[in-house]
Amino acid sequence: MILVILQLLYLVITMGVFQTPTTQLTTDAELQRVIDSLKNQSLKKDTLHIYPFNPNYITDYKGYVLGMSTSEIDRLIAFRQKDLYVNSAVEFQKVTQVSDSLLELISGYFKFPDWTKKSAVQSDTSIQGANLAKKESTESTIVVQDLNTATALELQKVKGVGEKLSARILKFRASLGGFLVNEQLYDVYGLDVEVANRLLTYFEVQHEPSVTLVNINTATAYEISKIVYIKYGLAKNIVAYRDKNGGFVSFSDLLDVPEFPAKKIDRIKLYLTLD
């Protein structure tokens, strides 16, 4: 009988019947501290940090994070696929059609190249000529040089341009026979858009080179492929389309040629003639 009583007493003690309220309170406090710590870690992890960015390069994910709808993101991407850029918050809203409230939230983080500010000044004051706009928007006068005669050392004076990049620019210029328009600078492989914009503050096409135009309605595939922007495979497609359809009436017909780079048509037609 005594043995049974002792066993019952042992079970009662081990089951915690006689645990004090103080012990229970201590345990609860420690548990609460753990919970609070986990909450703080979760909040830190979920916090969104937005840094200044160029809205022209918003990706699907970036747009989603910023709160843009799929259709708003698609409008921006379609606009950029035409080789066009938004240069202000107003233009961004016009292209994407985002709401005023969203624009107010994110436009403070927009970071546009310096040259866009100069363009805005030119537009607002109806100033004619890019050189005049650049000069009036800087504290000191900038002597704009000819992009077709610039040396590697002169190009390297611009921030972001080193030996390799300057050599690449000169090589591309040589392959073209000289730049016909400023926009061709953006076609240099590996040249960042912002660096190209910076270069065009100091350089521009002042003397266009003499170019022998290629007759798109009579040239062979080999002759067409001599144009920098057209590889031989594409040239063959152009000739095949021409033979099948009886020639090209306008340059826009080139857009119907398989694999034709629509984004480059404005550059390519600089080297072509229809007759």
Quick rundown:
The chain is an all-alpha fold and 275 residues long.
Description:
By secondary structure, the chain is an all-alpha fold. 51% of the residues lie in helices and 3% in strands. The protein is built from 14 helices and 4 strands. It has helices at residues 2-14, 21-46, 60-66, 70-80, 89-96, 100-106, 114-125, 130-136, 152-155, 163-176, 193-202, 221-224, 232-245, 265-268; strands at 145-146, 203-204, 214-215, 272-273. It has a two-stranded parallel sheet with strand order 1-2. A two-stranded parallel ribbon has the order 3-4. The radius of gyration is 33 Å and the shape is extended. The N and C termini lie far apart (121 Å). The model is unreliable at 121-130 (pLDDT under 50).
- Biggest sheet, strands in spatial order? 1-2
Total E-strand runs = 4
What amount of the residues lies in strands? Answer: under 5%
Let me know the average pLDDT: 81
Which residue ranges are poorly predicted, with pLDDT under 50 across at least 5 consecutive positions? 121-130
Q: How big is the Rg?
A: 33 Å
Termini gap: 121 Å
**Helix-residue proportion:** 40-55%
**Order of SSEs:** HHHHHHHHEHHHEEHHHE
Number of helices: 14
Please render the helix and strand layout as text.
Blueprint: H1 2-14, H2 21-46, H3 60-66, H4 70-80, H5 89-96, H6 100-106, H7 114-125, H8 130-136, E1 145-146, H9 152-155, H10 163-176, H11 193-202, E2 203-204, E3 214-215, H12 221-224, H13 232-245, H14 265-268, E4 272-273
Parallel strand pairs: 1-2, 3-4
